[in-house]
Amino acid sequence: xxxxxxxxxxxxxxxxxxxxxxxxxxxxxxxxxxxxxxxxxxxxxxxxxxxxxxxxxxxxxxxxxxxxxxxxxxxxxxxxxxxxxxxxxxxxxxxxxxxxxxxxxxxxxxxxxxxxxxxxxxxxxxxx
Length: 128
Fold this sequence. Notes:
Number of strands: 8
CATH superfamily of the largest domain: 2,3-Dihydroxybiphenyl 1,2-Dioxygenase, domain 1
Low-confidence stretches: none
Keywords: Metal-binding
InterPro entries: Fosfomycin_Res_Enzymes, Glyas_Bleomycin-R_OHBP_Dase, Glyas_Fos-R_dOase_dom, VOC_core, YwkD-like_dom
Number of helices: 2
CATH class of the largest domain: Alpha Beta
CATH architecture of the largest domain: Roll
Shape: globular
Order of helices and strands: EHEEEEHEEE
Domain VOC: 5-128
Helix content: 10-25%
GO molecular function, one term: metal ion binding
Number of domains: 2
Largest sheet: 4 strands, mixed
Pfam family, one: Glyoxalase
């Protein structure tokens, strides 16, 4: 077996219209498909990342909150590649998104920062 990359990351949101706006309008991810699944009373929104990966955004009634702070076991955060972390940070802040100070990775020397989606899911910008 040879893994070829990550195909998608799935995210469950608490407020579908708010999350859809955040990922498609603020993060500017292209909508591939949007489906309302009647049997589950749930939306599934497929969003394209520029490198071919995808984010699947789900809405499930009654889904419990994810413990992000303090950090819990499991997936820690989702990181997006950017060419200039300063420009990306400034853009997000202009959209009303709180972004942490830019730091430098002690091992790679690359710049990065964190912000959160509307459900407080930790997201990272990593300069490549």
